[in-house]
Amino acid sequence: MNIEILIYMYALLCLSLIGFDCLWALLSRLRNRRIKKVEAEFSKKFEDQLDKITSVSEIDNSQMKYLTKKLKNVDNLKAFHRALEKYNDNNRIEPYLRQLGKLFVLLAAKYEKQQSINKAYFAYVVSQYPINFAETAKSISEILISYLYDKSVYCRENALMALYQFGDEENILRAVKILDNRQVYYNSKLLTDGLFSFKGSHEKLSIKLLENFSYFHAPMQLTIINYFKLTNVDLRGMMFGLLIDKNLHNEIKFALIRYYGKHYFEPAKKVLIDYLLQKNSEEWEFAALSARALSRYEERQVIDVLKSSLSSRNWYVRLNAASSLCEMNVSEDEFLDIINGKDRFAREILQYTFSIRKKNSTKQKTRNQVGIEVCK
Amino acid sequence: METIRIFLSFVGIFFIIYLIGYSTFLFLSVIVGSNVLYEKRRNESLKNELKHDYYVPISILVPAYNESVTIIETIHSILDVEYKLFEIIIVDDGSSDDTSDKLIKYFNMHLVNRPINKLIKCKSEEFIYECHDQKVSITLIRKENGGKADSLNMGINASKYPYFICMDADTLLQYDSLEKIANPILEYDDVIATGGVIGISNGIELEHGRVKDYKLPKNLLASMQVLEYDRSFLASRLLMDQYNGSILISGAFGMFKKEIVIAVGGYDSSTIGEDMELILKMHVFCRTHNIPYHIKYSADAISWSQAPEKLSDLRKQRKRWHLGLFQSMTMHRRVFANVEYGAVSFASYTYFLLYELLSPFIELFGILTMGLAYVLDLVNIPFMVMFFLIYASFGAILTLTAFFTRIHTQNYKIRFSDVLKAVLLCFFENAGLRFFIAIVRMTAFIGYKEKKLQWDKFERVQTEN
Fold first, then answer.
1. Which residues of B are less than 8 Å from A14 in CB distance?
2. Could you list the residue range(s) of the whole structural domain that residue B232 is in?
3. In three state form, how does the secondary structure of chain B look?
4. Is B395 part of any domain?
5. Is residue B71 part of a domain?
6. Domain-embedded: residue B412
7. For B162-173, what is each residue's pLDDT tens digit?
8. Which ipTM did the prediction report?
9. Considering CB atoms only, which of B42, B386, B404 is closest to A7?
C-alpha cells in the first residue's frame, strides 16, 4: 500500500507538471499581449504630446503624472521604450525627451528601491537617451552612482553605460573608484571599452585617472592603461615614470610595454631594448612583449637587437622579434646570414614570417592594380 | 524459498531507492534547467546582459578524419559567425579521403613552412597550408594519424590565442555561437572552460548562421534523439552548472583556456572519451593546486551536429560514448567519494557512476531478478505494469517539459505536427530508445581490449544549408 502511495504521488506530480507547463505558457502569452497593448497606448500619447510640445514647449502635468505612475512598473517602462524606439523622426522626439528629464529623476529614485533586474533595465533606458540637461543629468547621475553598489553585475554595467553617456569625467572617476574599492570582479576589457565609449573629453578623463593612478589596485590600473592605449590622448611623457617604476605589478608593466609599442616615444626605446636583452628566463614575457613593441622603433640599433633575439631560446621572443622585423622595411638581404646560418629555429621563424609578408604585399599590389583602396 | 523472498525484497527496495534517486535528479534538473532558461530570457528582455563586440580572441580547432562530405560546410558555418577576433585551425588526422585536397582547393590555400611550438606532445605534421583571404585566417595541418585527442593537441600547439574551441568536423555554428560561449568570461574572472548546447542538425535549415526553419527530423530515430538531447544536455548540465559541477563538456563544441589545458598535459590520446577526461583532469588539477576556477555551461551557445539515423550507427556512437565514459571515470576514480572535490564528487561523479556508467548492469540485474521472481510467482504483475507506465509517463513529461522550454526560450516556430510528433515520440523514447541504448551499453565492453581506442564513425550526410 505504501508503495502505491508513492506511485500515486508520481502520477500527481506528472499532472501538476503538465498543468504548470500549460499555465506558464498561457501567462507568458498574456503578459506579452499586455505589453503590446500598453506600447500602443504610449505611441498614441506621444503623438498627442509631440503636437503640443512644438507649440507650448512643455509636457502637460497630467501627462507627467500619468507617466510617473505608469513607468514605475518595469513592463510598462519596457513598452514605453519600445514605443519611443519606433519613432524614426528624431527631430520631433528630441524636445519630448528633454522634457522627460524630471520624469527620469523621479523614476531613478523609485527604481532604486526595486529589485536589481528592474534597476538594471531602468539604467539601460537612461543610457539610450542621454539627456543634455545639466540639472537633471546631475541628479540622475547621483542615483546611477548608487546603483554601482548593487550586487548585480548587469545593474552596475548598465549604470556605467548611462554615466558614460552623460560625459562627466568627475562622475566616471568616482565610478571607477567605487568599483576599485569594492574589489568586486569586473571584466577588464568591458571596463576599458566602456571608458573608451565615454562621451565627454577623453583628455580630461585620462588626466584625472592618471592623477589618481597610484590609489588604484593593480587590476584597475591595468584597465586604465589599456584605456589610455586606445585613446589618442598624448600621455607618453606623463606615463614614462610608470614604465621605469620597478615596484609595479608585472601585469601593469606588460600593459605599459604594449602601450609604448603602440605610442612611439623615444625615451622608451632604451627601456624596451633592456627588457629584450635581459637574460632571466623567468622573465621571458618582458622580452617577448618588448620584441613586439619595438616594431614601432625602426632604426639600426633596434634592428640589430631584434636580429640577435631571433636566436633566443624562447619561442615567443623569436616569434615576436621575427614579426617585428617583418613589419619594418628591412630587406631580406639583411638576413642572409641567418637564413644561411646554422640556427634552424631562427631560420624557420624568419622564413615563415617573411613568406606571410610577401603574400600580404602581393595581395595589396593586386588590390592596388584593380583600384581598390587599401586600408592598412 | 524464504531466503529468496528476502533477497527479492531487498532487491525491490534497492530499485525503489535507485529509481527515486534518478527520478528526483531528473525532476530537479528539468525544473532547474527550465528556471534558468526562463530567467535568462527575462534578463535578456530587460537588458540584464553583458554584451560586447568580442570578448576574447579564440582559436577554433576542427579535428577531421575522413570528413570530406561535411568539412566545407562546417568551415562556412564558422566563417558566418559574427565575432571579431578568431582563427580557424583544421587538423587533418591522416585522412584516407580527400578532406585536405578539398579544403586546399576550395579556399585557395597555400603551402607554408610554419614552425609549430609543441608544448603538448603529438604526432608530426606532414604539411601545413594557410589561407588569409577569408574573413579570418584558416590553417590546415595534415599530420600522421593519431586520433582525435592527438589532433586537438596539434591544434593547441599551433593556436595563437589564449582560448580555443574544439568542435567536430560536422558541427555547424550559429552566428552568435562564439559570443555566447565566451560570455561567461565577462562574468567570472576564472572561467577555464565553457560548454555549449549541441542541437541536432538533421531537421533544421541554417542560413548564414541563423536558423531559418526548425522542425523535427523526418527520421524517427533522429527525432527521438532531439528529445533525449534536450533532457540530458539541457536539463542535467544546467543543474550541474549551478554548483560548478560540470564534468562533461561535449567535444562537439566547448571552449577552453589554453594555459590550463597545457598545464594538465592536453588531451589524453589513450582514451576515446577525451572530452570528459579533460574536464575531470582540469577539476583535479585546479583543486589540487588550490586554483579558483569555474567550468560553466552556456545554454545559449548553440551548435548543430548530425545525429545517426540508423540503429547501427547509433549503436557505434553510444558504444563509443560509454567506453569513453568508463575510461575517463576509471582514470580519475580518485574523485569518487572524495571530500576534496565536494559536489563534483558527491553529486556529479556519483550521478554519472550510478546512472550512466553502471546503469546497464544495474538494469540487467533488475531484469534477471524480475525473471527469477516471475518464475517463483512472486511478481505482482498489475502493480509492475502500473509502476512502469507511471514511471515512463513521468520521464516522458519531463522530457517534453525540457523540449518545449527550449523551443519557447529560443523562439523557434514549431509546427503543430511536430508538437504532436514530440508528444507521441517521447513515450517511445523513454520506453523504447532508452532500452536499446541500455543494451548497447551492456554489450559495449565486448571486445574492449582489442578495440578500446577504435572510433567507429557513422555515415555523414550533406545538410540543406
1. 390, 393-394, 397
2. 24-350
3. CHHHHHHHHHHHHHHHHHHHHHHHHHHHHHHHHHHHHHHHHHHHHCCCCCCCCCCCCEEEEEEECCCCCCHHHHHHHHHCCCCCCEEEEEEECCCCCCHHHHHHHHCCCEEECCCCCCCCCCCCEEEEEEECCCCCCEEEEEECCCCHHHHHHHHHHHCCCCEEEEECCCCEECCCHHHHHHCHHHHCCCEEEEEEEEEEHHHCEEECCEEEECCCCCCHHHHHHHHHHHHHHHHHHHHHHCCCCCCCCCCCEEEEEHHHHHHCCCCCCCCCCHHHHHHHHHHHHHHHCCCCCEEEEEEEEEEEECCCCCHHHHHHHHHHHHHHHHHHHHHCHHHCCCHHHHHHHHHHHHHHHHHHHCHHHHHHHHHHHHHHHHHCCCCCHHHHHHHHHHHHHHHHHHHHHHHHHHHHHCCCCCCHHHHHHHHHHHHHHHHHHHHHHHHHHHCCCCCHHHHCCCCCCCCCCCCCC
4. no
5. yes
6. no
7. 999 999 988 999
8. 0.85
9. B386
